Amino acid sequence: MAPERLHADITMAEKRRAMAGSPVCRAAPGPVNETEFLAQSGAKDMLREAVLKLLEARPEEPTAFLADYFEKLWTGSGTAAGEKGVHLLAQQRLNRALWYLKLSHHSQRTAFNNNLNMAYECLSTGGRKKKTGLTGKNYSEVLSSICQEGELPEEISCELLRKIKCRDHEAVPFDIFRYGVLTCFVLLEFRSKADSLFSVLNKQGPADQRLGKAVLDTLEEALVTSDLFIPASYLEAGTKLGPDGLALAMDKAYLGNNSDATISRNQFLKDACALFLYKVKPVG
Amino acid sequence: MSPERLSQPGAEYLAQRHVQVYLEDALAQLLENKDEVEPQGSTAKFFAQYFASVSKGTHVLFREFGFVQITPHNRASFLKIFWRCFRTIAKNGDLLSMKEYHCLLQILCPDFPEDLTQKAARIVLMDDAMDCLMSFCDFLYAFQIQFYYSEFLDTASALYQDLLTGKNANTVIVPTSRSATSRQRQPPSDSSSQDGVDAPQFCQGLESLCERYRHSCPPVPLIGEILSSAPRVSFYGFLMALAKHPGINQSIGALPDRAHLLLDELLDKELDRLIAQLSTSSITHSPTSSCALISRDIARVASPRKCLATRRRPDLESDGSTEETDSSES
């Protein structure tokens, strides 16, 4: 594909050069022709769709995002009529679904929900334009790909998948799909937050074990003891993790501290993730 | 994740990243190339290629000047292309005149205006002896400043002239204090012509200028750093310092730093390989006559290499012309 594109790039550039040399005699096609062409090619709608997706996702580099978007659009339309193997098609659908899921951050709920829908649609379509529904196998594949790309350690992702995966032959309803995918993304974010928390502890020399433990305990208290069905418990958890609450716990730990034991980043992250996993409700 | 970007109004986000420019251009290019694009299906392909080339920075090749300079990204892309296409000049150590550099620029952008090239040359030559020859490096970094910050430099120049003639609104002459008035009067009369203007004052003016030019001016802390090194500064001295400052080059992000300007690992490796092959094959020729036993082996190994080397040699010589395809590759 790359050489082909290079070629297209060059021919386009060559043409521009030829045109720039003779700006006067550039054949100007009639405007009717152009509007017709635009209507035929569907360029307008295509661009409108693209801008909507762009606004949902707000990527740092819009042009790279658009290039990727159109690339997917193009390969997607090409393979619908293609004669590739079933396995390859399945792989492509998986990639496409993952791409949808990553288009926008999960905290942007409307955009993320739209993309979840698209991904679900995409995964549920069978080989011959037949709706087969999402199987547990494909669902697990999506989840493990998300975990892999987020560089989640094997043991944690196994534990997570054990809780939220379905049996291979089961049909996965949208709600479960949404729950599973969202859980993966939130865990990844939780882990990166825990990681930056550890970096703070680790700033001046190796992180102290007691301090690390105090932080984890506070985290545990906030997470584990809270009841998800009582809205007020969210606020309680927030106060427990607020700067003063956390500082109090750390201060207490620091005063009674006279050991040199340290805690490693991996251990800290593992413990933090275990707290999260404890809260994940198993499906089915 | 930058939260600012996510909370921005949509129109502002699009405008800040100049998305509309590229959308319009994509449509215009589509219409221009419509004979080659079939109506169905391949429109997406065309857009994919267009935006890929925008994000790679090859989209400004052979385009009209109006488009080349319209966004900061386009300017940076053009600088990169210019560097990649004509890097060999620097490698050979050739010195060129302003007119010759202008011709090179016109190869890439047919209607490139001469006054920009001229201004860049002024920075290198410190506004003196304009028919001098310049090295590629010197010209390139000066050109980068001039081209990328063109509008900012124009206003800065006006500000400088105002300061020189003492027209600055910030200058407050306190009539009661004799020392102040004498200090204020002195600079324009004798030291201004050779010493330029008061650096902190110039810096202050530029800072307020930068506030207005939010997106196309050098980073303010770096301007402060440059202007704090001496009490007085001349305009071309300031431009030269801008051009030579590695931090500014980094913030534009189009060119590598000066030390790495001529390094291109792929090309260099290729060249080294060729040279190594040439030398081994030429060395292996001499022992062939003396020691027949080894020579047969060597000859067998060396012959395909030699063949490759001779085949590649024309590439080596016409390096300048092949650069063009090279630049659109990555």
From TrEMBL, chain A:
<feature type="domain" description="Tubulin polyglutamylase complex subunit 1-like C-terminal">
    <location>
        <begin position="90"/>
        <end position="281"/>
    </location>
</feature>
<dbReference type="InterPro" id="IPR047502">
    <property type="entry name" value="DD_TPGS1"/>
</dbReference>
<dbReference type="GO" id="GO:0005815">
    <property type="term" value="C:microtubule organizing center"/>
</dbReference>
<dbReference type="GO" id="GO:0007288">
    <property type="term" value="P:sperm axoneme assembly"/>
</dbReference>
<dbReference type="InterPro" id="IPR057632">
    <property type="entry name" value="TPGS1_C"/>
</dbReference>
<dbReference type="GO" id="GO:0070740">
    <property type="term" value="F:tubulin-glutamic acid ligase activity"/>
</dbReference>
<dbReference type="GO" id="GO:0008017">
    <property type="term" value="F:microtubule binding"/>
</dbReference>
<dbReference type="Pfam" id="PF24480">
    <property type="entry name" value="TPGS1_C"/>
</dbReference>
<dbReference type="InterPro" id="IPR039235">
    <property type="entry name" value="TPGS1"/>
</dbReference>
<protein>
    <submittedName>
        <fullName>Tubulin polyglutamylase complex subunit 1</fullName>
    </submittedName>
</protein>
Automatic annotation (TrEMBL), chain B:
<feature type="region of interest" description="Disordered">
    <location>
        <begin position="176"/>
        <end position="199"/>
    </location>
</feature>
<keyword id="KW-0493">Microtubule</keyword>
<feature type="region of interest" description="Disordered">
    <location>
        <begin position="309"/>
        <end position="330"/>
    </location>
</feature>
<keyword id="KW-0206">Cytoskeleton</keyword>
<protein>
    <recommendedName>
        <fullName>Centriolar satellite-associated tubulin polyglutamylase complex regulator 1</fullName>
    </recommendedName>
</protein>
<feature type="compositionally biased region" description="Low complexity">
    <location>
        <begin position="182"/>
        <end position="195"/>
    </location>
</feature>
<dbReference type="GO" id="GO:0034451">
    <property type="term" value="C:centriolar satellite"/>
</dbReference>
<feature type="compositionally biased region" description="Acidic residues">
    <location>
        <begin position="317"/>
        <end position="330"/>
    </location>
</feature>
<keyword id="KW-0597">Phosphoprotein</keyword>
<dbReference type="InterPro" id="IPR038968">
    <property type="entry name" value="CSTPP1"/>
</dbReference>
<comment type="function">
    <text>Regulator of the tubulin polyglutamylase complex (TPGC) that controls cytoskeletal organization, nuclear shape, and cilium disassembly by balancing microtubule and actin assembly. Regulates the assembly and stability of the TPGC and thereby modulates polyglutamylation of the microtubule, which antagonizes MAP4 binding.</text>
</comment>
<comment type="similarity">
    <text>Belongs to the CSTPP1 family.</text>
</comment>
<dbReference type="GO" id="GO:0005874">
    <property type="term" value="C:microtubule"/>
</dbReference>
<keyword id="KW-0963">Cytoplasm</keyword>
